[in-house]
Amino acid sequence: MKRPLIEPRLVGKRFDDHTIPLELLKDLAVLEEFLIAVAKWIYVQDNGRQRSPKGFTSPLTLALSEVKKGSACPAIVIEYEDPSAGLFPAANEDFFYRAANAIGRAIDAAEHNEPITQLPANLLGYFDRFGRGLRDGEILEFFPGEARPARLTKLTRRRLLLASQNEEITEEVTVRGLVSELDQAKMSFELQLPTGRKITSSVDAIHLDTILEATSGYRKGVKVSISGVARFDRHERLDSFDMIEDAVIIDTNDPLARIDELRLLRPGWLDGIGSVPSKSEFDWLESFFATSYPATLPTPYIYPTEDGGILLEWRTANQDMSMNIDLGALQGDVHCFNTQTKQEIEEVFDLSDPEHLQSLIDLISKAAKGEI
After folding, report:
1. Of 2.60.120.560, 2.40.50.730, 2.40.128.110, 2.40.50.200, which CATH number belongs to 171-250?
2. How far is 156 from 292, CA to CA, in rounded Å?
């Protein structure tokens, strides 16, 4: 027999087609553990016991029955085989509904910056794995359709973890740097970040050749991009990697690595003058290159400007092309100069407009092919 338990709603571009990326299924698997742990805790509180009875969950299992529309809504049901239940709820079923409610109310409290009293601190530690797969701008609504739908985001997840007993927090991240040292006996390496600080990580056989290549190219400035589960302290300081999911050598002129360097700029960087883009402006620029700029296009050189903007420059076979970006207004002023025909093109693009962004990409593509 199946009974609906909860249908959280995932909101974000990745879920617009009513699908859930496989990497998010890890979070749903953790939710099962989380619900069981909270259900047992509620039972103990209700009955004045030290622990739940053996076989507390034996007639029950949690399952994903379908993904409903509205961005993507995973329908999680309780399945059980309990011949004695008949048309009545299986033993202990009610504790799972109360557990789902308690988790949702804790998320709601974190979202509204209220005291998180719905769960004990040790159980809040489950948020270290539940919600870790969410990206910037993505939301998991625990109670979609309600006036307060309990939105789990990267911010609310962090608030919940700060209220837990966890001394460290894990996040799925991508960082770039130099491999300064490799210990093949211990199968570990040191990654030197743009700030100069070094963090350690284990390495498995799958990624060993990449790390070896980066190590041998250390003095030549060969950089590597590492993606995986990283460990942070409560002050958001990156400490180490728990698990590497991807490791690749990146180009010398990689735009994301260059943005890492530019983030280190401080006001007055140009002979005592020179403004610096804000964190959110750098975040937008990073997102532009990570999600909107095709990898097939030539990589621009990236420079800071005195007024806090960014200058991009491309050099192709017959084109000198540049774009001065006003990050505050998200406006790009483009200048193209054909070194053979001496023809000039000047255009202004609204970088917040998808159609303008596509026109910009088309222009860069034509310049790269020598078509203008």
Report:
1. 2.40.50.200
2. 27
